[in-house]
Automatic annotation (TrEMBL):
Segments forming domain DUF8206: 335-410
Organism: Panagrolaimus davidi
Name of the protein described by the UniProt record: G domain-containing protein
Superkingdom: Eukaryota
Pfam families associated with the record: DUF8206
Gene3D superfamilies: P-loop containing nucleotide triphosphate hydrolases
Matches recorded under InterPro entries: DUF8206, P-loop_NTPase
Amino acid sequence: MSLKSTVRVYNILLLGTTGTGKSTLVNSIANYFTYETLEEALEANEPICVIPSSFDLTLANFKKIIITQYGINRADVGNENHSGASSCTQKPRVYSFYNDEVGFNVIDIPGIGDTRGMMQDATNKKIISDKIKEFTEIHGIFILFKASEPRLTPEIKYNLNETLMLLHASAVPNIMFVITNARGQDYGPGPAMNTLKEYVGDLYEKKKILIELNENTIFCVDNEAYKFQCGWNKSEEYRNEMKDLKGNYIKSWDFSRKVIFKLFEKMYTLSGHNVQLTSSVGQARTVIHCAIGPLATITGYIQRALTPASRQANIETLMNSGNQIKNEVEIEKTLPRTVCTSEKCIEAIKIPGTKRYNFNFKTVCHDKCYLRNVALAKFPEPALEDCQAFDIDGNCTHCGCRVERHMHLSQKQTQKQVLNKVAQKPLTKEEAEKFMDKFVKAQVKEQAAIINAIVKLSIYLKQNAILEYNNAFEERIMLEIRKEQAALSEGVEDSADVITKLQNTLKHYKDQMKAINVSIANGNASKVTEEEVQEVMTLLFTLPHNGANIRKMYEAESLDCKATPDMKNANPKEVFACCVKYLP
């Protein structure tokens, strides 16, 4: 059943980390909208369950009762995984609560921090991005948070960052925090308040983005009354034992229902957030994040190609055979592993028959590392603190280096040298030198194009995103420098020249970004559009000398984020309509 065209419709995006109780909240909302009091709900003895749910209730004699509710559509039970260690919601669903005058579409999506791991998180973010596109406006963005979160751990910070990174900066006024499990904190936010204050304070300090934390943005609820309601319905033994405690659950119901109505009433006062903006920034972020590593690696290749030793080797090859030495990237998929990027943990391996080297992270500090919530090929990466390779002080028990110097990888990149035919016969010395002069100029031009691209992509995120990955390109260039330092220690003389060139490139980039940041702060920076982001990527992929390698590495980096089908066209099986009696 679909909503009548005359009904006012409000769309709400339900976000939150795995385990915060999104599905239970939706079921509770369905009952708050159907029954005015818990007494009425218990008398009807028909709990409204829109999402399949299963949970245990424990009696006084420690006997466990398993409560199972199938939801509106019994065939959809497979979308909720109720095993103890698994994430619940598997695919997005839209729960439409409506009457003759108003409708609320609650968009329930898989949580960030999925117990199936980081690869699934990347997939979930793609699912969220695709699902959002089905709507023109989002009126409310409800971020769920457990009241018992005592501190801002790396995992919580990661989950909040990844959640906010899905959103355009203009969505801030539509953000509400829903604090769950509030009964144990006297129906207040509990320790979660300090955790949120620390997080949003840090966000304002670094990004000047203000998310207010007050009675208009924080809503504390408890959903135990729903579980009590289900137990009452399913088990006579539970009813007999719990009837004297009914008053506690009536209090929980009354408090939470009042808060939920206040939360939904808030939607009437908010302007809808333009979904196209959030979709665009999400797509651009994926593009940019996947491009950082390849562009830094290619920068290293270019700087080595500009050394006198490389020039001379090419001149000799051109004079001998009319061929030019060309580098091609090879990528091998591996199991996830934690490696160290410190200079002492990198080795330079000579490519047979050449004067070139491949670089290998020789210290694998944790092989087959399936730690969840860790970004690939990114460092410093706070979530790595939970990897078993590190002690309580953040030192690696395998190599002794700090956690900040480590990263998580699922691929191995090497370069091989091939001969590229540029002339049908050997060139004279003069011809070879002219050819290389032209080649060097082209490489310098392409390096400038890469730096300009990184700057433009960074500007786009600074102008449009709530959060972006800071200093990612700088860190990756520093990694290229450490690789060359490792080669220098192996006796590769021209590595000193490469290091100098990389340092100069980094300084040039930082100077540009410093000027851009001042310009943005003063409101003088030109607006970068999503169309320009696509144009930048097209330009990078078509660079004559380095475009093919950039594309190959970029596609390998982005592969993990392309695991879901396109869902632009709403699937009727994903929309569940629920006609209710009471709405704000």
